[in-house]
Amino acid sequence: MELVIRGGKVATAHGVVVTDVGIDGGRVVQLGGTLSGTTELDATGRFVLPGGVDAHVHLTDPYSGPGEHSWADDFTTGTRAALAGGVTTVGNMSFHRRGEQMLDGLERDLADAKANSLADYFMHPVLLEPDEVGLAQIVEAAALGHPSIKVFLSFKRFDRNVDRFLKAMRVAAAAGVVVAIHCEDAAIMGCCGEMLAEQGLTEHRHYPETRPVEAERIATERAIGFCEISGAPTYVVHLSSQAALDACRRGRARNLPLYVETRPIYLYLNRDRFDEPDGAKYAGAPPLRLDADRDAIWAGINDGSVATVCTDHAPWSLAKKLDPSLGPSELRQGMAELETLMPMLWSLGVATGRISVSRFVEMTSTNAAKLFGMYPQKGCIAPGSDADLVIWDPNETRVIDGGSMHSNADYSPYDGWSVTGWPTHTLSRGEIVAEGSRVMAEPGRAICVPRRPFERP
Ligand SMILES: [Zn+2]
């Protein structure tokens, strides 16, 4: 064999066993038994986890004008951060630009990722125009191996075209396409922003009031109704509140194909952060909520109501986040989370006893691989699976310093936090792509992960 990993605690969604892992041709070929490798890694006392599958990242620029809009990371820097943190597959939101169709944006982002990504990738084309061409392209994209789309209820264009978007969900249902939905109501947010402006409340700390829980709850209820009527597999992205989670629980109890993603910030931070002088650095959409919401989402992770923790990695420099010319409705949303996704969830989830190692594996890898049609190639450790593996030291502690990490963002929302549980090695298809925090992978080595249409897990 090319590589044997000795004596690690091999973790899957089903449990943990101490065994050796044999790797050849980029795949896991044998667990246990007699093995000898050209290269051998000793993982005694450490875990061997499936590489993370982060189904929600933004590594391509959605707008066309130079300087008009630009997140700090691209495919190279973003996936470098991913590999350093144990994430070996990323799902990018692929926007098309003015004058383009959905497939044009998809093609451009695929070419970008092929040339520049270090980690394996897949794409969710964003449906902005649900006209006849848009609907036909949902089916075309699925046939090309991209059976998921993204829809934003937070964009005003949604309310102008509700009937067409609902039709798009019927098309998606028939084609086995997962519809990822951003659930915040555009009209409520518009109204809240207007009321704040009328009261002269223009400071950054009012950001949470521009996107209240009601906007999320109402939009989530609508998405669930659309799921129920259309039958489309529906993936609620970055759920942040107890009210929205309760709505999803009720939908799931009706056996709907409804799945919930949450995002790291909602597990570790609350809205008091916005009272800090630099609180705008925590702006994400939806905003940070209350401790009760945070606790409800942890409970949802444990009872299976929440399927995945994905980053929504969309980083900015601190100066851009704190830009004083921006009103509370205009703050730049998103932050760097790819490198800290798995360590933070381990440190605050597994090490604290909140979740099991198997649940950690499901949340960071297995469930996303299943929902997005890549399992068992990705998301598990079994003969035949890609050897996307993380050798994980559960005892290593580092203090987070976003300025010295791999993302181009110059800060992390967790700067100064002491975090226990880090990768010592990250493997992608059998290749050691990161060791400690050093990433050896080069751009252009990654593949677009072949995907199948949705099947109910
Ligand atoms: Zn996003």
Secondary structure elements and their pairing?
Blueprint lengths: L2 E10 L2 E10 L2 E5 L7 E4 L4 E4 L1 E6 L17 H10 L2 E8 L7 H15 L3 E6 L6 H12 L4 E5 L3 H5 L1 H14 L2 E5 L3 H13 L8 H4 L2 H18 L3 E6 L2 H12 L4 E5 L1 H5 L22 H13 L4 E2 L8 H4 L19 H10 L6 H15 L17 E11 L18 E11 L2 E5 L2 E2 L18
Parallel strand pairs: 1-4, 1-5, 6-7, 7-8, 9-10, 10-11, 11-12, 12-13
Antiparallel strand pairs: 1-2, 2-3, 5-14, 14-15, 15-16, 16-17
Describe this structure in words.
The chain is of the alpha/beta class and 457 residues long. It folds into two domains: 3-49 and 382-439, Roll (Urease, subunit C, domain 1), CATH 2.30.40.10; 51-371, Alpha-Beta Barrel (TIM Barrel), CATH 3.20.20.140. The protein is 33% helix and 23% strand. The protein is built from 14 helices and 17 strands. The strands form three sheets. Strands 1, 2, 3, 4, 5, 14, 15, 16 and 17 form a nine-stranded mixed sheet that branches. Strands 9-10-11-12-13 form a five-stranded parallel sheet. The longest helix is centred in the middle third of the chain and has 18 residues, at 213-230. It binds zinc ion. The site of zinc ion has 5 residues, from loops.
